[in-house]
């Protein structure tokens, strides 16, 4: 524990930060902070400084983003950027890699490209920050935040209980693990059912750790239709637009189990917590089925990439992307465009349909 003068100074800094934030925006955000855990779908620069092939801190990534190249794996905003705007934040949630001090009070993004529920997931691409480490990083953040509450754990817990926690994990545990037999043995060690169960057991423990650290309003997202992304379409022997259904079927097992886990958490396993399940699989499927309604013309190719479906090699440094990004669902071999991210965020934020957000939507969760 630091000296009393240190604690007073920390409290003073926190007050300065909160008052500056209040002055900088006409209205307060709907929640005081937003913490993000995940992979490249929501990473906003945490991989920039580590040795990995999974990074996006080069043009044309960020071509439509006001701050330009940041390490986001898309042309503009990520799903959580859009969600932060819908929640009323005046700034995007900053990456953990460069956030310290009072800025932690508004929330932090811990996500890392190639990360998974399992530690070894993504090792084929180099270094990354797996979910276990992301949870540890949040634990470090809680220790730092305690200083701004003068060591008052109850006050800090009360503050954190109002915040929204988002976790989107599992995609890489299939893409960069189970369905990569040349690099991993999980595909032969586990049936698809046993692998989903093993992932859910680990994930349940990780989410419970977040709860024990103070998380009470938690959004978890299912894995999307990975069998239909350009990377898979380029490798699948079917016709150009036919999805790899063996991958999709394996993912549905995980998603079904995740929804049941949310029910268990909400029905008393984690008292005082409210979990929301986002059905990214349904959401991404809907984008493709109703593409024309949303103004999309290209549903099976990346806007930037190389080879079949622009998915054999993902977007390369300084490569020329497509002209009109608004017509594409996919930015590269793996990730949605800015427009697709915004549509999906709006649906999960305010949709009344439980096929997108269950049992309530994110707007309702914020109001609890």
From TrEMBL:
InterPro entries from the UniProt entry: GDSL, GDSL_esterase/lipase, SGNH_hydro_sf, SGNH_plant_lipase-like
UniProt keyword terms in alphabetical order: Hydrolase, Lipid degradation, Lipid metabolism, Secreted, Signal
Source taxon at top rank: Eukaryota
A Pfam entry, by short name: Lipase_GDSL
Signal peptide coordinates: 1-26
Entry similarity comment: Belongs to the 'GDSL' lipolytic enzyme family.
Name by which UniProt lists this protein: GDSL esterase/lipase
């Amino acid at each position: 524990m630091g000296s009393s003068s240190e604690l007073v100074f920390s409290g003073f800094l926190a007050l300065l930060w909160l008052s500056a934030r209040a002055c900088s925006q006409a209205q307060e955000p709907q929640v005081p902070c937003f913490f993000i855990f995940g992979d490249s779908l929501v990473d906003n620069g945490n991989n920039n400084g580590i040795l990995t092939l999974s990074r996006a801190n080069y043009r044309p990534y960020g071509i439509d983003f006001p701050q330009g190249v940041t390490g986001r794996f898309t042309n503009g905003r990520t799903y959580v950027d859009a969600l932060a705007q819908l929640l009323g934040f005046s700034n995007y949630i900053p990456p953990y890699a460069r956030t310290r001090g009072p800025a932690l009070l508004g929330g932090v993004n811990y996500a890392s490209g190639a990360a998974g529920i399992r530690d070894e997931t993504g090792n084929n691409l180099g270094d990354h920050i797996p979910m276990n480490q992301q949870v540890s990083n949040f634990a470090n953040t809680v220790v730092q935040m305690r200083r701004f509450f003068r060591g008052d754990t109850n006050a800090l817990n009360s503050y954190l209980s109002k915040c929204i926690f988002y976790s989107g994990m599992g995609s890489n545990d299939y893409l960069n693990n189970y369905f990569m037999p040349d690099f991993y043995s999980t595909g032969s060690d586990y049936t698809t059912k046993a692998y989903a169960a093993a992932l859910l057991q680990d994930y349940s423990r990780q989410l419970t750790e977040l709860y024990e650290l103070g998380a009470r309003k938690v959004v978890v997202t299912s894995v999307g239709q990975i069998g239909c992304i350009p990377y898979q379409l380029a490798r699948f022997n079917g016709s150009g637009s036919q999805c790899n259904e063996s991958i999709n079927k394996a993912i549905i097992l995980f998603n079904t189990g995740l929804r049941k886990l949310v029910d268990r958490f909400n029905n008393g396993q984690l008292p005082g917590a409210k979990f929301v399940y986002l059905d990214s699989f349904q959401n991404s499927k809907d984008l493709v089925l109703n593409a024309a309604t949303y103004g999309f013309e290209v549903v099976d190719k990346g806007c930037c990439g190389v080879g079949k479906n622009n998915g054999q090699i993902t977007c390369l440094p300084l490569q020329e992307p497509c002209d009109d990004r608004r017509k594409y669902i996919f930015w590269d071999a793996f990730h949605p465009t800015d427009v697709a991210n915004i549509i999906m965020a709006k649906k999960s934020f305010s949709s009344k349909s439980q096929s997108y957000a269950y049992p309530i939507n994110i707007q309702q969760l914020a109001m609890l």
